[in-house]
Amino acid sequence: MPGRCALEAQSIAIAVAAAALLWPLGAAARGHPALLWGAAWLCLLGSGIALLLFPPSAAPLVIGMLGPLFPAGQLAGAYALERRRAPAWIIPTALALGVLRVGAHGSAWIEPFVGVVVEPLGTLMAAWIVSRVLRRGDASWSAYVIPPALVAAALVDCASAWIISPQGVPTFVLGGWVVVAALAGPPQIYHAADRYLRHQAKLRRHTEDELQETRERFRALTENAFDLIAELDGDENLTYVNPRYEEVLGYPVSAFLGWKPADFVHPDDLVAAARFAAQADAEGRASGLVVRARHQDGSWRWLENVAGSFVTRSGERRWVMNSRDVTERRAHEESLERGRERLEMTVSERTAALRESEARFRALADHAPELISEFDDEGRYTFANASFKDLLGLEPEALLGTTPDELIHPDDQAGSRAGLTYALRKQTAAYRLHRLRHTDGSWRWFDNTGRAYRTPTGELRFVSIGRDVTEAVEAEEERRQLQQHMQEVQRLESLGVLAGGIAHDFNNLLAVILGNTALLESHAESDPESNDRLRRIRAAARHAEALTDQMLAYAGRSVSDLTPLDLSQLVRDTKDLLHAAVPKKCKLELELGRELPAVKGDVTQLRQVLVNLVANAGEALREESGHVRVRTALFDADRAALSKAFGAAERPEGSWMMLEVSDDGPGMDAELSGHVFEPFFTTRESGRGLGLAAVLGIASAHGGVMKLETELGHGTVFQLLLRPTTETAKQADPKLHPHPAQPEAGVVLVVDDDEAVREVAQALLERGGLRVECCSGGHDALARIRGGSSVDAVLLDLAMPELSGAEVLRMIRVERPDLPVVIASGYKRDLAAEQLEDDEVFGFVHKPYDPDTLIGIIREALRATRAA
Q1: How confident is the model at residue 739 (pLDDT cuts 50, 70, 90)?
Q2: What is the helix (H) or strand (E) element at residue 867, kind and residue range?
Q3: From CA 229, how far away is CA 261, in angstroms rounded?
Q4: What is the H or E stretch that residue 640 is in?
Q5: Residue 407 DSSP label
Q6: What values do phi and psi take at 460, rounded to 5?
Q7: How many CA atoms lie within 13 Å of 810's alpha carbon, on the beta-carbon side?
Q8: How far apart are CA 763 and CA 498, in angstroms?
Q9: Radius of gyration of the chain from Cα atoms?
Q10: Does residue 11 contact residue 58 with C-beta atoms inside 8 Å?
């Protein structure tokens, strides 16, 4: 009997130890079915070990103690699989059943009842719960194994409890447990672990999604917040700032990172900022700090700050600081405070001495930046504040008893007097913008607001407040003049483009006229009358050619090579021609600066500008005596001086070389002076009206501007302003093209879309003994060159439809790099060169053709081909 008690005590101890292990394991698993089912199979394994190690008489006691823990673990695992907490009574109940079974060992009905009914019932409940859970769409193979395996385990458990005896457990029962354990244990643990891992992965994804959503929400909140939001590390260095920082303080967001907030705080506010930081460090939160923060432009912005701390997962302490821009509120509060102080002062003064209202009014008025004045019913000053001294240089006391008529501009007197009279008669308000004379003689614009009122004694008064708006009025006038000037420039540019196009096409017509004239002259030598008429045609055409040159000059498309030259020397060299351009009664005066910087220009065209300006000045004087002055100087031009100029779009402030032509003639009014640079506009009885238009075109082509200063009855001044250059003035040598005496052999290809021009060029070249072929366009010319046609030189028109001359030239350079090409154009050489970019050409001829020049340059091209 004592031996049995000892065995029972050992069995109970083993069961208690197993329960003690299973219970915290289940608690640690927190509903993990794999761990709970694993513990259940461990209990079953413990029962098997007991059968092997304990004697047959003691083994049933151990099995009886551990037996109820198997269905308890299975049932708890089933609850966990359903994601429910296992009831707290399962393990204590299983332990109590084990104790009851051991205590009732040998009983005829208690031990069989527990082993055959209760334990299998727990396993069957687990099988039912698992089957219900797995019917929810689980497609795992283990889902079909676990419920039957649990049912089999319940049957084997029932059989083992029914058949167990002191002599041991039959072999087929042990085999049944082995089969059940082999078939049910691994699928259970695998399935539970798989579901757990998948659940954890789902939770992790859900957590990550929530984290990402939280991050996006945080980003959206911070980046769209009205406040300035920043994060600081433990050393109070900024690790994050939202875009509001850049909007309020002007620095880019990256400029704040790594800096301390104190680096941007006004020196006078650093002590308050330090106290704020100490409070936040001690209490974990601080608020109410208002400091000035430095803006990127050097100004200061008022910020109201709130800070709080938090701890990261790594245990690091961080700070979040919210700041709000209260600059406007601060200014408003200060303004309200100042207003409150002024109001309190005014109320106090009025309460203390109501009869001293005039003195108080003077104290307020004298500190105002506006003109404050009062008038009686006859419009005479009864009061003027101290600002009259500051703004107009007038002593206020000297104005008392006088009227403002002497101060107001004559053009504004009638309107101001009428407004004052009306306001006094109707006792209403009046508004007026007029000019007042400063003691230095200048005029200042004032925006005046006034109202009539009656004094306590019934006298009629008018109080006026005038604000100095001179700068605003002048700025508006400057803007209006600039807009007017831009419209004028655009109109002149449009006319220039039109004139240039007409001149270019007109040159093509002149090329036909002059070419055919030259061809006819050789056949009319025996007919003097025909020869004379041909000379007249040629003279008229050359006259028309000069007219087109003037039109091209107006369009800014006739500038040749620009070389450094001395404007003063240019005037000296043209002195005789200038004397001839002015009337005999007029005196020509030259005021030429010495050692002035050179300018880059075309001598011929600048001489044309000088002669035209002097001739116009002499024409303005007509036959009356007067002076025409020509002056050269270095002129420092500011924005205001250049705003009224005509010409180049770029007008940088600074030094300009000036060529000035002035006269003391009758001058011009504003309407007339606004048209002088227009083409075909003239006040002369005879003239084409292209002189000053060409002058403006030449000035623009040289990168210069023209200034006109004139007033009716006070003469006229024209100024040509050119940018100086550091190069030394020099005289350019003319380039001569020698013409060989003997004609050159070879074929010349003439490419021109104008049939008449093409025929003239062919006739002139053939008269010079040259073989000529013609093409009407670029495609035809390229086809001949590519087809192997014998071509030794090309006369190529620059302006053609479809393929331009520049495009044809580039293609010729690909096919025949050594083929000399001569460019023909109605424009001057430099403008044509701009279209050709870096393409190499042999030479250039201007339309209308000069026969000798055309034949000479083509002969040189043929010689170059032969030499190559």
Answers
A1: very low
A2: helix 851-867
A3: 12
A4: helix 639-643
A5: T
A6: -85, 130
A7: 8
A8: 32
A9: 55
A10: yes
